[in-house]
Amino acid sequence: MEIELKLLLPPERLQTVPDLELLRPLTLGAPHVERLHTRYYDTPARVLAGAGVALRIRRAGEAWIQTLKGGGRSAGGLHERFEREWRLAQPELDLAVLADTPYAQLFADAALRASLQPVFETEFERTALQLRFPDGTRAELALDRGEVRAGGKSEPISEIEIELIEGDADRLYELALALCERLPVRLGHVSKAERGNALASGRVRPPARFDARLEADMTAAQALGRLGLACLVQLQANEEGVLAGADAQYLHQYRLALRRLRRVMALFRFVVPHSVHGAPVLRRLAAAVERAHEAGQCEDLRALIQDSRYAATLLRLARRFGRPEGVVTPRLIAPDTPATVLAAAVLGHCDRKLREAGADARRLHAGKADDALAFFGTLYPEARVRAYAEALEALKDAPGPLAEQAFLRAQPFWA
């Protein structure tokens, strides 16, 4: 399993990183500099990309290394995924070794194997520092500068990768937060493989929607941790579209992700006290989002997204959401309370407030009920949720006496 944090940094600042005072007591030996050329393979139909798998051959010095990556998750700059490497005698794919991986069935398809071909490549200079932290945790800090190329097009690579070798991943967060205080970094949520696939296909990533599934055996803290990470994923996935001033749907989904993130944080504080940081940054962000939404004034929002304090806030949130079970002090609801108990309490509260709301407050409470449904609806059978969801959707989209009466008749599915 590969675990790494990715930070984006302007090229002119990348070369200053090895000289930072904070790295000196952690660095083992001199930096290692090498030129890396990597070729990525897929089918013409991009079957591997569709499965979330990257297959590549990299030349490092005189060595050829085949790597398979896949699965895992990415949130708040932290990437966790399956990774396995093999040394090759020559720069040709060795597909036989893939039979001993979790993706053996995918590569068992003879037609797929026959249609694999180079799709894009990366070439960059890597400056690698070996780090050892006081608790014994070991990591590699890599500074990559170069480009990704496909079909005559190219994009620059300028990033910091902090990869865990052994020990506690918390040290990666701590180092990344320290870098946020000293450098104008942003969090990198897209891998080189994802960037290359997008460049090769010419397709723009569509606006990202909220996507989180909960399991009935989760605790309340675990469920909220997963929901928080899902909000961060949606937020970050729409950043580039917001910065580029592209389709208004990017701003809409970014706004929705931020709203839900703040609501998860409010719920989280009831379960895990003193657990979430960055509320001032998120309040400024929310105000900038509303100005962009209502008046089309996006300058403040774009500046905030590119501010390293924003990156630090997302890092802190991802760190907390990623380890919710580590906190055992209850506030109003014990962290080990079943997620279904928390879900019923939140859904019931939002439903009651909506039914009691006057016309002027109905829109607000309908939004809160919709968020609660998005958060916890996956804990219940779809057939039970559908009728309630349809009545709530009608009340939101076409409010009026008929929609109100239909919603009032809708039966709570969580009871």
Low-pLDDT stretches are: none
Helices, by number, come to: 16
Query: Roughly how much helix do the residues carry, as a percent range?
Result: 40-55%
Structural category is alpha+beta
Largest sheet: 8 strands, antiparallel, barrel
**What spatial order of strands do you see in the largest sheet?**
1-5-4-3-2-6-7-8
Bulk shape: globular
Radius of gyration: 23 Å
Strand content: 15-25%
Query: In whole angstroms, how far apart are the ends?
Result: 41 Å
Query: Could you report the average pLDDT, rounded to the nearest whole number?
Result: 91
Q: Which sequence of SSEs, written as H and E, runs from N to C?
A: EHEHEEEHHEEEHEHHHHHHHHHHH
The tally of strands reads: 9
Characterization of the model:
By secondary structure, this protein is an alpha+beta fold. The chain is 45% helix and 24% strand. It is built from 16 helices and 9 strands. The chain has an 8-stranded antiparallel barrel. β6 (117-132) and β7 (138-150) form a beta hairpin. It is globular, with a radius of gyration of 23 Å.
Write the layout of secondary structure elements.
Elements: E1 2-8, H1 11-14, E2 27-42, H2 47-50, E3 53-60, E4 63-75, E5 78-88, H3 104-107, H4 110-115, E6 117-132, E7 138-150, E8 153-166, H5 170-182, E9 186-187, H6 192-201, H7 220-237, H8 239-244, H9 248-271, H10 279-295, H11 299-305, H12 308-322, H13 339-356, H14 362-376, H15 382-397, H16 401-409
Short descriptors:
415 residues; globular; 45% helix; alpha+beta; eight-stranded antiparallel beta barrel
